[in-house]
Amino acid sequence: MAMCTPATGRGRVRLNVGGRVFETTAATLASAGRDTMLGAMLDASWNECCPAAAGGDSVDEYFIDRDPACFAVLLDLLRTGGLHVPPGVPEATLYREALYYGLLDRVRAARLGEFDGDRLRLAASVSGRAPGDGTAVRAAPDGGCCVSHGGAVRVYNWMLEERRPVYLDHAPINDAEYLDAATLVVAARKRPSRRDGGVAAFSALTGDLRHRFRVAHDRQVRSFTAGALAFDGRSNIFASCKGRFNEYGIGVWDCTTGVQADFLYEPPGCALGDADKLQWLDDANTLMVATMFPRTDSSFISLLDFRDKSVVWSWSDVGTPASLEDKHAVHAIVMDDQRTVCVINQYGDLGFLDLRSNAGGVRWKSRSKLSLSRKTKVQSEETCYPKLAVHGGQLFASTNDAISVFSGPDHVLTSTLRGNNGGAICDFSIGGDRLFALHNEENVFDIWETPPPAII
Question: Is residue 85 included in any domain, yes or no?
Fold first, then answer.
């Protein structure tokens, strides 16, 4: 392998890849970046005597024992910025070679456009191979995902190839979140008379257990059921916790050391231990905790400040719905401005709560133009309740077998995503420039991508 300096764009470099000769410029290889294998070939600290470094016309040939057809695609990507894959080049092989050269991020950027809910296109559907229905899907930062199935989490890389699954003592999984592309944190339910459940971190690459996060109460380690998970973007992991000896509330652990950093015990009327949605608000340095119908008879949303262990804002629909025809909130999310909570009810209506006011009620926004009222009643019988997500200033809401996209300050419906016939959508997740939608009937998840812009 040869190394040259990127000091000049005039020098030519000849590469023999698997017996096929390619000739290019030092500037083209340098455009891969110094943290890539090709960029490292041009690093002066490796070889200060490369002919191309001197800016001369002499050309040396360097041999790389890899696939030449894939290298041709990757070299063309560096030259043009476009990804053109001939029919005879398998995508899995191309991704493997891109990983070797350190160009996988470049391939992903060329394959996927900037995420835009109004331009998403169905790219693929993956059938689950685990017994039973999937219950949750989570997008990975690198474009992969994981799907929870009972006591296991099925993990997929960006190429949608299945990795080794994750097991937490085979206890039923309540939530799973990516701490980073290589680390998966899992929350599981405790089974009667068993010391399992809780929170643990696993390798998303190998499925190996990395750490268990313990809850201590009265100086004793307790087994507990963990519900929803969240991270604060720095070093803390949050989880709703429910045990047998007053360990009801929100646990906090340092994700680096695994040490329990704090525990906020459940105040009266907050239902923190049963929370099924947590979200960290960086601007306000608080945690949103939502326990939603039908998990409990009514819905509770609170903002917690761990600096003084206080509830700084709360809302509940206790006593508000008078009949089944009234509006119960079934999911909640804080909007990008971190001043508004959006909720969705079992009939698909959107509601908004102002975090700057403790007195205001829900401002409901009808979605009647979607004609979903009749269908959502059927959906509630199937236990696939609507879900919400925000990304890039857009609001996403799942109802039945579709995901609606709302844009702008008035949350105008701008597009609807409807995939394969896999039944109602029980969960969806956005990350790694993709949207993943998990269907309940056929255990299928769809992958939605934004096409890249045309290269002129």
Answer: yes
Specify if 44 maps to a domain: yes
Q: How many helices (H) and strands (E) does the chain have?
A: 6, 33
CATH code (residue 88): 3.30.710.10
Residue 53 domain boundaries:
12-111
Instruction: Quote the strand ranges of 157-255, DSSP E.
Output: 166-167, 173-180, 183-188, 198-203, 209-213, 215-217, 220-222, 225-231, 236-242, 248-254
Contacts of 251 (CB under 8 A, 6+ apart): 199, 213, 215, 226, 238, 239, 240, 241, 260, 262, 263
Report yes or no on 17 lying in a domain: yes
Domain count, the chain: 1
Closest of 331, 450, 308, 320 to residue 384, by C-alpha: 331
User: Mean pLDDT, consecutive 10-residue segments, the chain of 456 residues?
Assistant: 41 92 92 87 56 52 92 95 90 91 89 92 86 85 92 91 88 93 92 75 94 86 91 92 86 92 86 93 94 88 92 84 67 94 91 82 66 39 82 95 94 91 89 93 88 72
258 is written with which tokens?
Answer: 């695994």
Residue 36 lies in a domain: yes
Maximal CA-CA distance, the chain: 85
Contact 63, 57 (CB under 8 A): no
Query: Any idea what DSSP says for residue 162?
Result: B
Q: Are 132 and 440 in contact (CB under 8 A)?
A: no
CB 444 within 8 A of CB 122: no
